[in-house]
Design goal:
The complex is a heterodimer of chains A (about 280) and B (about 140). Chain A is mainly α and about 280 residues long. Chain A has eleven helices and three strands; from the N terminus they run H-H-H-H-E-E-E-H-H-H-H-H-H-H. In chain A, helix 1 crosses helix 7, helix 2 packs across helix 11 and helix 8 packs parallel to helix 10. The two termini of chain A are about 45 Å apart. In chain B, strand 1 and strand 2 form a beta hairpin. The chains are: A mainly alpha (about 280), B mainly alpha (about 140). At the A-B interface, helix 3, strand 2, helix 6, helix 7 and helix 9 of A face helix 4, strand 3 and helix 5 of B.
Chain lengths: ~280, ~140
């Protein structure tokens, strides 16, 4: 069920974002190169605004389209640059002995893709778009026992195999660039939660019990984490871990978060407005 | 008390301090409270080249200015003491470093086991603890 939920959240998010980006790109080409557009949403909006005599709105619309496209490009470039820099830094804090030891222990599961860095804070994450890697810290290895360690590696391996860093990046990127379509934020958060629950589930299935991923999670949460604040947004994702705990406590029960009607109403309101304009333009 | 120039390629205390600074800090962590002269004496024990009192004083005053040492009035000469224990210092540095490292990855590229903003409900955590104990008992 979470598989379906994850897939539909991702596909819906990509579909909405893809359509909006494509429409925006066409509209930008119309603005700069004078392309002739017939059924472009933004073009129709613009024409409607001009025919109503609200020219300032038409300029605002152009500004929104152009700044959104620019921020999309800037965000992608910035992220690629950050990855390069982070990989460089991680390589420098590599704990070669621990990395070699882990490669011997878990090489069959992880291959060459596990890096241990020396840091007292307990860290476990998967990163990278093409060159994907699992990063564990020496602090984490000290904190966990053997089975818990394996559970965390299985959990991260699930993220790695399914290209989760790239997909999470895409959904979160679109949610922040298209801040005026709130349903994208909801989809991104849902997708993120679904990926975590699926990764927990994978570790439990492989180990035949929820006990180990559960106690690893418990230890990490009780250890107070690293104090870093990597996520800029605050939303239900902040409490996502509670859904994960409920799922571990009761694997068969559905623990899905409620549908945020106001968000949906906001987004569909916008959609209705656009449809109305389209209708008006065609008639 | 932030380390401005963290040296990734160095080992141990040399990651945070210059070579002489690192040795002064180590001596003070091992002895708690010492005067400049005491530190100079201890440094000489492991050093062939003589170190002048002024050199040691400059280093120790710089460490005091940076907030790593406290200067206390002694009977004849001032006593110097580390502001934090070695363990507390290392823990703080490592937290800061990892925080910076994570900030630099950017917010979006990583899938964390537990997000830093995750706030777990304490009741749920207690329930989880009981459940794990029970699960582990059932297995053994």
């Amino acid at each position: 069920m979470w598989n379906n939920r994850s897939r539909s959240a991702f596909v819906t998010s990509m579909l909405i974002s893809g359509i909006v980006v494509a429409q925006m790109l066409l509209y930008a080409c119309h603005l700069f190169f004078g392309w002739n557009l017939k059924t472009n949403l933004f073009h129709l909006c613009n024409m409607w605004m001009r025919s109503m005599g609200i020219f300032s709105f038409a300029y605002v619309l152009d500004a929104i389209v152009l700044t959104t496209l620019a921020s999309l490009v800037v965000n992608i470039l910035r992220q690629l640059w950050l990855i390069r820099r982070a990989e460089h830094k991680l390589e420098r804090s590599r704990d070669s002995r621990a990395t070699a030891l882990m490669a011997m222990k878990y090489g069959q599961i992880t291959g060459e893709r596990l890096l241990v860095i020396s840091s007292a804070a307990p860290l476990a994450f998967t990163m990278g778009f093409i060159n994907r890697r699992i990063i564990l810290s020496t602090g984490l290895l000290e904190l966990l026992d053997k089975e818990e360690e394996r559970a965390v590696i299985l959990h991260e391996m699930h993220h790695l195999r399914h290209h989760d860093p790239l997909k999470t990046f895409m959904t979160t990127l679109f949610a922040s660039v298209f801040w005026y379509i709130p349903v994208l934020r909801w989809l991104a958060d849902n997708y993120h939660l679904a990926r975590e629950i699926l990764a927990d589930g994978y570790a439990s299935r492989e180990q035949g019990s929820e006990a180990f991923i559960g106690s690893a999670l418990l230890k990490l949460l009780r250890s107070g984490q690293s104090g870093a604040q990597p996520f800029a947004h605050v939303s239900f994702a902040e409490h996502a871990v509670n859904y994960r705990i409920r799922k571990i406590l009761n694997p068969v029960q559905d623990v899905s978060p409620e549908l945020p009607w106001t968000t949906l109403a906001g987004s569909s309101g916008m959609l209705l407005l656009l449809m109305g304009m389209l209708f008006w333009a065609v008639v | 008390m932030k380390i401005e120039n963290f040296k990734y390629h160095e080992r141990g205390m040399n990651r945070f301090f210059g070579p002489l600074e690192a040795r002064v800090m180590t001596i003070l962590w091992d002895n708690t409270e010492l005067t400049i002269k005491d530190v100079q004496h201890q440094l000489q024990l492991h050093q062939e080249k003589p170190l002048s009192f002024n050199t040691v004083m400059t280093v120790m005053n710089r460490l005091t200015e940076k907030g790593f040492l406290d200067k206390l009035p002694g009977r004849k000469a001032s006593l110097y003491r580390p502001t934090r224990s070695r363990e507390a210092f290392l823990e703080a540095q490592s937290k800061e470093l990892t925080g910076e490292l994570l900030d630099e990855f950017g917010p979006l590229i990583v899938n964390h086991m537990v997000d830093a903003l995750d706030e777990a409900d304490p009741d749920l955590l207690d329930q989880l603890e009981k459940r794990i104990q029970q699960l582990k008992k059932d297995r053994s």
